[in-house]
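Final paragraph of the annual report: two paired records, presented back to back.
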Amino acid sequence: MNYRLKVFLLLSLVLLASCKSSDESYDAHHDWQARNAQWFAEVYDAAQAAIAEAKTLYPNGNDWEEHCDWRVYRTLLKSQEVQGSSTDYIVCKINEHGDGDWSPAYTDSVRLYYRGWIMDENYPTSKTNMTVFSQTYYGDFDAATAAPLAMPVISTVEGFQTAVQYMVKGDDWLVYIPQELAYKETASDAIPAYSTLLFHIRIELVHKSGTDMPGWR
């Protein structure tokens, strides 16, 4: 066999083996827990800064709420009298205020639209791309074509439960949930363990149970 041909074939085999080894060792979710914690911490700090600025500019009572779209809520499964750590909280950005009369309780049900994301594998290099893991609508939200989902509040993860219990009919929010209030160490095909979750949630109706006026409203 020609010497040059032998060298070419040898180099090709080496490169092929190198590529295979590289592909097999690549882990898209390396440091996943730490990077997800970093993502939530950045959102939490930004929301707290925006709220603090609004409270400084509008110090009377809750006037600041009319000038700030961010909210930070402690999980309702823990005492509201204790400060706790940042991962005891969810971060919410209000896209649209609804006109409902009441928020659902833990024992109530809701009819809602949602889309859920986990962060991009390349975070923090990429902070804008997200991976959808579940949704009730496709493309841009359109109430005329989207199909709402009816669900008991209690059936969702802790952070989702908390968000919904602060919402009313017509509310449209983005909700950031730390891994501690989501699925923690539990993984699924769509959601790796220790994932921070981002939801777009829009409440269509609330079903009150055990009241003088039960039913969807």
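The closing record of the year follows.
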Amino acid sequence: MKYRLLGKSGLKVSELALGAMTFGTETGIGVDKVESRKVYEAFRQAGGNFIDTANVYNRGTSELFLGDFLKGDRERVVLATKYTGAMRGRDINATGNSRKNMMDSVHASLKRLNTDYIDLYWVHAWDPLTPSDELMRGMDDLVSQGKVLYVGVSDTPAWVVSRANTLAELRGWSQFVGLQIRYSLIDRTVERELLPMSRALDIAVTPWGIVGSGILSGKYNKDASAEGRAAKRGQIDERSLKIAAEVIAVAEETGATSTQVAIAWLRKGPANIIPLVGARTVDQWVENLGCLEVNLDDAHMERLNAVSSISPGFPHDMLSLQSEDRAKRIGNHRDWSMGAYR
């Protein structure tokens, strides 16, 4: 793998990040320690150095596994974890983004990860009860203490992130350098506000849900019974199946798998994007890694963009129409003598 800078920081990370949410079996979606280690080692052998987890993944087991896997390898890895979610049952202060939960959570994560510091510490989700100045000052304190090197934010509205970073910039505190959001051909709504913000503030984007809950793998298109089950549960619609069908077609033309095409499309997206790739097995990881060899030309991108397009929403749709109208008027009806446009 090649490497890129994480936003406007000097931190160099691999062009794919490994998501460790599947490390552990406590919540029924992951794998045991033996298989998790195999995936970790395959990622490292491929040149990957950016690994993402969270305190709540499999009730802390993901962090525990990584703490063991990282022995002798810690300095070579960019380790990211998160806080916000509750880890102490019904304790009212064990959830959210308050300074108390922040400090309790980082100390617990450091113990589970068996490390002295965390390279990138994420706010896992927006907590409207915690003021931005409390959050950003607390994160900056962690950086000043050397417990955290960089900070990022996940699943938070664009206006909240931009306000928090502006506040941090004005007060000389550490700013968010990473943004973790749901993004795929199935769900492109982040293109309305979050991705433009990330470009304007030079924040790297690590998208999750990159194959649309498995829809973009094409399995629901190819298996009518699976499609029926998913539709019955309300998890899939005709638009999603249509998008997946186009992905399958492009995959056949490029000699790739549908999953590889879905990730390759993301990598050419309108932002500094580092896809967050999860894998339950080494075979899945190898398939995901193959996305780096997929070359989508302009025609492929146009087809994928067209089938998955969304309305830009207000005010972008209105402003776009006004801009087009203004361009036509300027181009066709200049009144140079009056210095005005009619």
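The domain at 3-312 is CATH 3.20.20.100 (TIM Barrel). This concludes the annual technical report; the extension proposal builds directly on these records.
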